[in-house]
Amino acid sequence: MWPRYRESWEVGAPEAAPLSRDEAEQSQKVLCSVEVVGVTCLLTAPSPACPRPARPSHAFRPRPACRRRSPPQLQHLGPGYLGPEQLPDCLKGCDVVVIPAGVPRKPGMTRDDLFNTNATIVATLTAACAQHCPEAMICIISNPVNSTIPITAEVFKKHGVYNPNKIFGVTTLDIVRANAFVAELKDLDPARVNVPVIGGHAGKTIIPLISQCTPKVEFPQDQLTTLTGRIQEAGTEVVKAKAGAGSATLSMAYAGARFVFSLVDAMNGKEGVVECSFVKSQETDCPYFSTPLLLGKKGIEKNLGIGKVSPFEEKMIAEAIPELKASIKKGEEFVKNMK
Ligand SMILES: NC(=O)c1ccc[n+]([C@@H]2O[C@H](COP(=O)([O-])OP(=O)(O)OC[C@H]3O[C@@H](n4cnc5c(N)ncnc54)[C@H](O)[C@@H]3O)[C@@H](O)[C@H]2O)c1
Fold first, then answer.
1. DSSP reduced 3-state for 338
2. Given this model, what pLDDT does residue 34 score?
3. CA angle at residue 312 from 219 to 150, to 5 degrees?
4. Where in the sequence does UniProt note compositional bias of the Basic residues kind (predicted)?
C-alpha cells in the first residue's frame, strides 16, 4: 500500500486513498504509453519517496532521484527528455499525452493573464503532438484551460488530424475540491462524495452542481452561495497562500493522476468510467463546455450532458457563457493569427 499523503497548505488536497494490491498490480499491466510534457508535480507528488513536489530545472526532465525510487506507476514513464529537439522522440508512439507545461499564476493574476505565455507553449507542444502522435489522447492542464483547449483543437485542425473525442481540458481539480468541501461540511468521506462540476475552469465559469451531488446533500441558500464561491475561487486561495511560489501542485497532481488513470482504464476496456472534462460540446451554445463524459477505448464515448439543474445552477450557467465564449474565441483567434 502507498501511504496516505496530504499537503495541508493546499486547499482541496484530499487524503489520497492508498492503492490496494489489486490496483497496484493492475497498474503494472497498463497497455498505454503516457508522456507528461512539461513535467513537474505529476511525476513526483504521489510518491512516498518524494513527498515534496520537485522543481526540475529543465523542461521535460524529471528529478533523477524520483525516477530511481518512484513507485511502479511512475516507472512506466520514459527516460526523461531534455528539450524541444527531443520532442519527436518523446512523443512518437504515445497513446496519452499530458501537458502541464507553462507558467502558473502569481497573486493578483487571473488564469487569463497567463494567456500570452502559455498559449504559445501549448500551441507549440500540441503541434508536435499533431505531427508525431496524432492518434493520442491529449490532456491539457496548462491554463487558461478555457482557451488552451480551443488552441489545441485549432492546431490539430490545421494539421488535418482533429478528433474532438480525444482532446481533454483537465478540470478534475474542481471536482476534487468540490467533493472535499462538501465532505468537510457534511462530515462525509471525500472519496465517497461526487459533485459534478461543469462549464469551464476559471472563476464563475466553474459551476458545481451541488443539486446532483451523490450522496444527496442539502444546504440553506446562503451556505450554498458561500460554498459555490469557495469552489470557484479555491485556486486563487492557493495562489494567495503560496504568495508567489506558484499555484496548486500536489492537489493538481492528484487530480491529474485521477483523470489520466480513469482515461487509461477506459482505453483498456473498463466500462462505466465517467469524468468531467472541458471538451468540444453541443450541450450549450458554447462550442466547448465541461460536462460528465462516459470514457471509452476511443476517448469520449458519450457526453452525458448537464442533466437536471436547480434554478441557482441554471443562472450560473447562463452567466458563465459570455465569458466562456470570449475565452474560446481568444484561443481560436490566436491559432488563426499564428505564423
Ligand atoms: N488545470 C488545472 O486544474 C490546473 C491546476 C494547477 C495548475 N495548472 C496550470 O498548470 C501549469 C503549470 O503549473 P505548475 O504549478 O506545474 O508550474 P511550474 O512552474 O511548477 O511548472 C511548469 C513546468 O513547465 C515547464 N515548461 C515551461 N515551458 C515549457 C515548454 N515550452 N515546453 C515544455 N515544458 C515547459 C517548466 O520547465 C516547468 O517544469 C500552469 O499553467 C498552471 O496554471 C492547472
1. coil
2. 79
3. 120
4. 58-70
pLDDT > 70? residue 204: yes
Q: What is the mean pLDDT of residues 293-299?
A: 98
Alpha helices in the chain (DSSP H): 21-28, 41-44, 64-69, 72-75, 87-91, 115-132, 145-158, 172-186, 221-242, 250-267, 311-336
User: Which superfamily, per CATH, for 28-170?
Assistant: NAD(P)-binding Rossmann-like Domain (3.40.50.720)
d(CA 241, CA 134): 39
The residues, any chain, with a CB within 8 Å of residue 277's CB and separated by 6 or more, are 168, 169, 170, 171, 172, 259, 290, 293
Residue nearest to atom 27 of ligand 1 (CA): 102
The predicted pLDDT at position 58 comes to 26
Q: Ligand 1 pocket: which of 111, 121, 124, 260 to mutate (most atoms <8 Å of CB)?
A: 121
Number of residues assigned to the chain: 339
> How far apart are the C-alpha atoms of 319 and 249, rounded to whole Å?
29
Model pTM score: 0.85
Q: In which residue are the cell numbers 502569481 written?
A: 106
For the chain, what is the mean pLDDT? 84
Domain range annotation of the chain: 28-170, 172-327
Top CATH class, 172-327: alpha beta
By CB atoms closer than 10 A (0-12, 13-18, 19+), residue 234 is buried
CA distance 298 to 37: 21
- Residue pair 286/321 in contact by the 8 Å Cβ criterion: yes
Tell me whether strands 288-296 and 299-303 are parallel, antiparallel or unpaired.
antiparallel
Spacing, Cα 167 to ligand 1 middle (Å): 18
Q: Active-site residue 201, yes or no? A: yes
State which ligand 1 atom lies nearest to the alpha carbon of 124.
31
Query: Would you state the cell numbers that stand for residue 322, as one nine-digit string?
Result: 459570455
